[in-house]
TrEMBL record, chains A, B:
Protein name: Glucokinase
Annotated EC: 2.7.1.2
Keyword Kinase: yes
Record has rRNA processing as a keyword: no
Enzyme class: transferase
Domain of life per record: Bacteria
Classification via InterPro entries: ATPase_NBD (IPR043129), ROK (IPR000600), ROK_cs (IPR049874)
One GO molecular-function entry: glucokinase activity
Amino acid sequence: MSNNIRAFIIDIGASKIEYLFLHNEKCIKMNINTPTKMDFEEDMEQLSNSFNFGKKTTFVVIAFPGIIKNGVIVKWPNKPYWEGNNIIERFIQMFDTKSILIVEDCNAGAMASKYIFPDCSNSLFINVGTGIGSGIILNQNLYSGENGFAGEFGHIVVDYFSDDICSCGRTGCLQLVASGKGMASLYKKSTNDQTDNTKWMNHSIGKKILYKGAIYLGKSIANTVNLLDINNVHISGSVLKNDIYRKQALDTVMQEEKKFLSRKLSVVITSEMNSSLLGACIIAINKFSISATTKKNVLANFPRDGEMS
Amino acid sequence: MSNNIRAFIIDIGASKIEYLFLHNEKCIKMNINTPTKMDFEEDMEQLSNSFNFGKKTTFVVIAFPGIIKNGVIVKWPNKPYWEGNNIIERFIQMFDTKSILIVEDCNAGAMASKYIFPDCSNSLFINVGTGIGSGIILNQNLYSGENGFAGEFGHIVVDYFSDDICSCGRTGCLQLVASGKGMASLYKKSTNDQTDNTKWMNHSIGKKILYKGAIYLGKSIANTVNLLDINNVHISGSVLKNDIYRKQALDTVMQEEKKFLSRKLSVVITSEMNSSLLGACIIAINKFSISATTKKNVLANFPRDGEMS
């Protein structure tokens, strides 16, 4: 594939879609809102209009937050009305190419971690945004599990006797108490303030919810470190930009580790970067022949620094 | 190594030591109480007397429930006064042989699972006795983690805001609420009945503790199935012989699975068998040249049936 490409590298989130448009050695970063028309067909139509750049696409790599099997969305707790639909077929029509690769967004994030931290043989990548997901690198390889479903971190049960039902069907999931959406719901429930923005984070009740959520996240991470005996954790996602949450999550992991096995644990926060999109780029670079200039342009879109503990 | 061997295959538990003594094509199964003199030297002396069969040993394989690094016990929450001692050096003296192999007991249990269920590429082995441990098989191999500490299942935190301190140093560990010792302590605490036997299991308060403990265990297993996406779980250990506990643990895992991803999950209870001892045998057979007759005698000591769900 020469420099004459016309490709998309896309990260689909519950509320926002970030993507890179690759064209004639250039790489432009853009984003649109994820359609929320509560109807799969209408959502697809809106997406199709957003990506209608007029010509056949060379290839598309998509980081997707739901569970997909044979092209069909098996589970996407954030948009259950998308479930049961063949998303690959739709993207083939939408982009007029069969070169479509879909990867679970946190598996893509884990691939980004592997690229940024090549010395980590075993690592856990976690993203905390609207939902919570993870990707696991074991023995230098992405571990995807028996059925390709590994790493559903948001649906780890943390409150064992809770009655609060999660969108996945379980009760007491981490996502209910520690994700952006989960914590905003808890705030709404305890204050009756129904405003949909992030101002709740500055409210005293909001701060308590963030603090507790971060402890839940931190202990869940410590549990996974304990189970898998890994020395490296990389945490990404918009919620980590909040000072209370970030500090408490980091402190909790390190305190738990110190109490028991005191490994040489490194926890790095990479909240300034879209790891899933970077991972999708790494996958695109490995899979498709992209020119050196385009590669450079693609990778230039990502900062590499993180906050360490 | 001909048929003229004189070897030990040993499973050291917190309260009981089960072992096979291999001699002249014969294999005898025996057990002794684990010494509890609260002093490492005295415990070693008692052990040494128990194993004093008069002659040099050919080889020893030991399944041990604590964490060992370079021969030194790093952690054994059930017997902290053994920590910091080089156990391999002691066994070399005790058995008068350098052919000593020590393996973490639940890793041995996982090796037994691999032997009994050779078709499982990925599986989780859990033992619930005095404590709770696990061993993980991923891609047909034992997964032991970055530092050899993988699978500390008993020290997964399940009660995130509990103040109850575990012997490992953390608070709210699974072992405190779902292990034999943990549940017996909870019973003693709520009834002031300080009797040390298993009669508490028949008491109405004891039954509630067992029921709740089994839910904690079941949800912890479901969390691990969710994180690692494995289809096979094998549960061993004396506590599983209790009807309430066994049934509720099985039901909980299956209910949790049904709510979310509905994998083809198989959970097998192998409580009638000492999986760690069997695993140590498999390891001994793989490592040392044992005659066909002895092999047959060794393996004849283990039933292979389990209760499935």
